[in-house]
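Figure 3 (text version): structure tokens given as input.
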């Protein structure tokens, strides 16, 4: 994905559904990562979430871009992801900047 094909990828309505990994992959990864992170609560208390979301070009299956977020969906990070997506697709923010902001600190990414 590049800035040259945003309109055919992340900015195309429904595109993330074509890139989202299957639940069989994310559930297996979530269980492994929960053990790695030392979480002792159940899988339902976590969402296997993309650090850099698909909606702003995050890698769909790279385990380094997925983690067991301790909150079930929807959660407050989802609104930030949507605002960053809108900013990128409107041209108000560069793709790389949006990715950097959410990977650094999603809670301050849109301030």
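Below: residues designed for each position.
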């Amino acid at each position: 994905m590049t800035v040259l094909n945003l309109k055919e990828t992340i900015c195309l309505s429904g595109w993330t559904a074509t890139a989202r990994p299957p639940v069989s992959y994310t559930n297996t990864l979530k269980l492994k990562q929960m053990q790695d992170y030392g979480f002792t609560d159940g899988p339902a208390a976590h969402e296997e979430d993309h650090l850099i979301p698909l909606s702003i070009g995050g890698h769909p299956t790279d385990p380094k871009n997925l983690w067991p977020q301790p909150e079930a969906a929807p959660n407050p990070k989802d609104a930030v992801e949507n605002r960053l997506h809108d900013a990128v697709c409107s041209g108000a923010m560069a793709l790389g900047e949006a990715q950097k902001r959410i990977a650094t600190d999603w809670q301050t990414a849109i301030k």
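The first strand starts at residue 47 and ends at 50.
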